[in-house]
Design brief:
425 residues, mainly alpha, Growth Hormone, Chain: A
Length: 425
């Protein structure tokens, strides 16, 4: 028998460009949906959580937003375990579908006026499912990118997962802006808010088709009980990673999610203007992220990360005062400044996160650690910011939340992350 006929075909390893696209596309979908919800929080609050005080409706709407984030650590455990035991690709494929279905259903939900209490209950349930999905998608894709990257280019490769998340939020901001420009307030309230969620289903279909059929090698060492090990053997590493991500997470959700509602409700400027300024700032962040990641690969991430948290703590109050100025040029200056600080805090931290947790439990450990930080601090930031203003009467009070978060991450970097930690995996 001819030996050539008995040989199994050897699959060609995926190119770096294909790997980046696979890691990027799911985050576009995941974060597009979360952004759309944040940008239409005022409308959703009115339709699903009606109250005589608009502030109460908005806080309830952000409460549902936070509920999704509070489920992210559980999603990190569920999808992280899948990633550690059967492969990163399987976890990413399942997570993108777990986001797609609730997103499409969001566009079909009846409001409180037609379904009563069932409407907000259904809304919160969908947010919870989406939170589980995001908890697995973001960290699994970043680990996939970092592990597949060539040495010396890990930060620059892993950053494209975060770049995809920012692109998704940018698309959500841009489409939200177009909806507010093209439709009247009455049309948006009646049906226009549903359009961005319906568009999300198309993005999910593209993401699934790109990821389907990709095959990469599993890590050589795998844990039989990754969930158990991260709470026993590796709990110190998990806590370290969680605290490390608090500062940049709070900054991101304050500036690029909550600020849209702030500019509309506190500064009393048109929502279309708020979304336009946000879209410009997000576009700037897209440009900055690869640049900072390249600098992290070249010079190391520790100094850049420390500088980012020092600047964030120092500038939180004055930059928030600019946002409260109600002058579009000053608001844009503040948001662009925050974009620089967020890029500095993000560019090198992705690979540092992965390198702090051993490979056999990396998906589970990072999935839980990162998402507990984002769930408890980042995702609740719009709710906390709205509550701080309502409780204190100080429109710049959210700046103190930013400052505190930056100090938490700064102290962790200085005292709990070894200086010798490089960006290798």
């Amino acid at each position: 028998m001819n030996s050539k006929q008995t040989q199994s075909p050897v699959s060609k390893p995926p190119t770096l460009a294909r790997i980046i696209l696979v890691g990027l596309i799911g985050n576009v979908m995941e974060w597009y949906d979360f952004a759309v919800y944040g940008y239409f929080a005022t409308v959703i609050g009115h339709l699903f959580f009606p109250a005589t005080d608009p502030a109460v409706s908005l806080i309830a709407s952000f409460g549902a937003f936070a509920a999704g984030f509070l489920m992210r650590p559980i999603g990190g455990l569920v999808f992280g375990r899948i990633g550690d035991k059967v492969g990163r690709q399987r976890a990413m494929l399942l997570s993108v579908m777990a986001m797609a279905i609730p997103t499409v259903l969001m566009s079909l939900l009846p409001t409180y006026e037609t379904a009563g209490i069932a409407a907000p209950v259904a809304l919160v349930c969908l947010r919870i499912i989406q939170g589980l999905s995001v908890g697995g998608e973001f960290t699994s894709s970043l680990i996939f990118l970092a592990e597949q990257a060539p040495p010396g280019r890990r930060s620059l490769t892993a950053i494209w997962g975060n770049w995809g998340a920012v692109l998704g939020i940018l698309l959500g901001s841009g489409i939200g802006w177009l909806v507010t420009v093209w439709l009247t307030e009455a049309q948006i309230q009646a049906w226009g808010w549903r359009l961005p969620f319906a568009v999300g289903g198309l993005v999910a279909l593209v993401g699934w088709s790109i990821r389907h059929g990709l095959h990469v090698d599993l890590p050589p060492m795998r844990s039989e009980s990754p969930v158990k090990e991260i709470f026993t053997r590796y709990r110190g590493q998990v806590l370290r990673v969680a605290l490390l991500n608090v500062g940049t997470g709070v900054a991101f959700y304050t500036v690029f999610i909550y600020a849209v509602s702030y500019i509309r409700n506190i500064d009393r400027l048109p929502e279309s203007l708020a979304l336009e300024l946000n879209t410009i700032s997000m576009a700037a962040l897209l440009v900055l992220l690869p640049l900072v990641a390249w600098l992290s690969d070249r010079f190391g991430s520790r100094v850049i990360l420390i500088l980012a948290q020092v600047l964030l703590a120092s500038l939180a109050y004055p930059l928030f005062q600019l946002i409260h100025s109600a002058q579009p040029v000053l608001i844009l200056m503040a948001e662009l400044s925050f974009a620089v600080l967020v890029a500095m805090g993000t560019g090198g931290i992705l690979v540092l996160n992965a390198s702090l947790i051993p490979a056999p439990v990396r998906c589970t450990g990072l999935g839980f650690a990162y998402n507990i930080a984002m769930g408890l601090f980042g995702g609740t930031t719009p709710l906390i910011a709205a509550w701080l203003i309502n409780a204190t009467g100080n429109p710049v009070a959210p700046a103190y939340w930013l400052l505190t978060a930056a100090l938490v991450s700064l102290l962790t970097l200085v005292f709990a992350v070894p200086k010798c930690h490089a960006t290798g995996i």
